Amino acid sequence: MEYKQFLQIHQYQLASIPENLWEPLFQKLGQDLFDAGEYLELHYGDPLDKYSLHVKKEGGLKKHGDIFLVDHAWTTKPETSRAQLLDNPQLVERLTSMMDISVEEDEEVEEEVAEAADGEVTSNYPDMEVDQDMIELVGSQGNVTEHRAKIALQNEKGDVIAALMSLTLHPDHDAQGLKNLEEAIGGQVKRDKEAKAAEKKKQDTVNKIMSEMWKFSQTYEYAVVDPSGQTKKESAWYIMDEVGSSMAHSDTPNCVCAPFIYVGRGTVSYSIIYPIEDIPKGGALTRDFVPADIKDPLTRKAYLQIYNDEQDAAELIAVYESDKLEDNDVTPFDQPFTKSLINTRTQHKAGDRKLRLYTTTEWVATNCKLENVELVDSEDQADLLWFSQDFKEFDKLTKGQKINQFENESCITFKQNLAALVKASYGTVPWSSTTYNLTTELAPFVGHYLWNKEHEHRNLWICKPWNMARGLQITIQEELAPLVRLRDTGPKIAQEYIQTPVLYEGRKFDLRYIVLLKATHKVEGDPSQGYEFQVMVYKMFWIRLANQPFELEDFDNYEKHFTVMNYGNYNLTQLLYTKFIENFEKEHADKKKWAEIQEDINEAIKSIFAAAVVKPQPLGLGAQEKAHPYEAFSIYGIDVMLKDDCQPVVVEVNFSPDCTRACKYDPEFLNNILTVVEPRVGNLDKALDAFNVL
């Protein structure tokens, strides 16, 4: 590659690097030259109690005087890192050394191995009770002690014949033969227990690496093209080699350390280091661990808590406690909904023009069966527009048109916005989990985590991107480090994990409700009069079940802790809501009747939309700057979980939900929605029977 071509391809990455270092970097990348060892050396325990990186060159390093390539020891993703480690013992050994990890031997397993080494034949089922008459029979027939006979019976699960055969298989069945048999069995037991000890040590080592990796990992984004041809960004986590990983943190660093993606002989990721201050011989190289977007000192302290958990936590805990007091002081407002449906009872008459529907939503186009509705190919021709993607051109809509989106509805469909709306409107409520925006509320979140730890409350949090569905990039975490670091790959929330959900046949579940929000002008045709909002919940809901029994462990086991199974290679449980209710009431006869639970769910949903339509933009949907000639409606997929006391918790509100499954369960599903939105196309009274109008 020529130098000019290098500059052109890498111009955006080079923009932040001093220009005098561009050509040296080009030369080192072209030669794959790792020459840091000629200038730098690792120290251990000097001055830190771990590895650190120091200048060994006479005269030291000068500001912007040189640039060094750093290799990456491991590149991974959180969801695949454990499997990678279990399959790569050489990588585990290298990372264990780099992270200065030690794993203690399990004393109990060591004792078992020692016992096996003595030749003692042990029982595989020591707690199994065996009839005394059987023990005496096997002992007399096998010519062994009752102790040996009992062990043989336990190992053969009470089968007398199998127990006798296990004792008499040796052709020279005498005292020496029995001793040889015992030694052979004892040797195998010893080998089995040694293998068990090795496997346990391997698992413990991997667990420690998984815990420590967040203190060493860095991240970068890259673009990929999905099967549909769309380009999307993904994140990679990497750990630098021994040189890069030994750099210490400083609030006033003397070096820059950053990833560099080199497009030369293929695409290769490196890191680069260059000094931004003069560093004398023996001086330690330091970098700033905190991302550049964090400026606030308290937020920096919260971020650095994962690198120094011995620092004073009182200030961060105080931030959390102050935040909690503010939540408790919020006065909820009255809810504005009425059950009257304004201007909705005009019926279609013979000879009337059909409603013209334009849609980009496949399940809508496929399932629209009303005679009085026709699909059109142009937005301009349409009376009703139904989009599956974000619509931005509201100013182009004309009087008489209706659209399936509200301006600023991200106030409820983005997870961080929904949490902010609930907090501002109600404070702390039982139907919403405590949620933190890790971009703007990192300090109170870390304070909450530390408060839980101080008060011996189990920390269990679910980390989610602001605006992704289908369970993408969602993880459950117990440790603080991954929760803090995962914010580096894009905006995230941390939400308290529901540790005591009510279960269905031992499995975790959530419920998907379809909610219709409709806005009509108070005076038909007069936009200046504002809007009347109506909200209604479709009576049919669907159940999403985990595939494995629920336990508060194995949090990276998707089929145990997550319920969305229809977008991966998982078994999907199909369960009609009426059958679910029937079975639920049988299984949980000691709890509330479903009608009471449903009423609580409806009230929680109503509370969200009451806040949304009252609060002004950008917090809510209300108080628009100008009236619009069009009318709007939207359907949302609302996910609800139940705690063990049947208290509903609204997990999230989803934009433009895929209702293919709803249409299979109820062929009239879409027709009912269209009729409520535009009553002239069908039988309104019949359609309304499918909803609970709030």
Condensed summary:
With 694 residues, the protein is α+β, with helices and mostly antiparallel strands. The protein has four domains: 1-67 and 261-289, no CATH class; 107-212, no CATH class; 291-329 and 434-497, ATP-grasp fold, A domain (Dna Ligase, domain 1, 2-Layer Sandwich), CATH 3.30.1490; 355-433 and 498-693, D-amino Acid Aminotransferase, Chain A, domain 1 (2-Layer Sandwich). Residues 54-112, 199-305 form the Tubulin--tyrosine ligase-like protein 12 SET-like domain.
Q: How helical, in percent, are the residues? A: 25-40%
The number of helical segments is 24
CA-CA gap between termini: 67 Å
What structural category arises from helix and sheet content? alpha+beta
Protein name: Tubulin--tyrosine ligase-like protein 12
GO molecular function: ligase activity
Organism: Mortierella alpina
Domain Tubulin--tyrosine ligase-like protein 12 SET-like: 54-112, 199-305
Structural features, described:
- With 694 residues, the chain is of the alpha+beta class.
- The chain contains 24 helices and 24 strands.
- The strands form six sheets. Strands 11, 12, 13, 14, 19, 20, 21, 22, 23 and 24 form a ten-stranded mixed beta sheet that branches. Strands 15-18-16-17 form a four-stranded antiparallel beta sheet, with helices on both faces. The chain has a three-stranded antiparallel beta sheet with strand order 3-9-8, covered by helices on one side.
- Strand 5 and strand 6 (231-240) form a beta hairpin.
- The longest helix has 38 residues, at 175-212.
- The model is unreliable at 111-119 (pLDDT under 50).
- Keywords: Ligase.
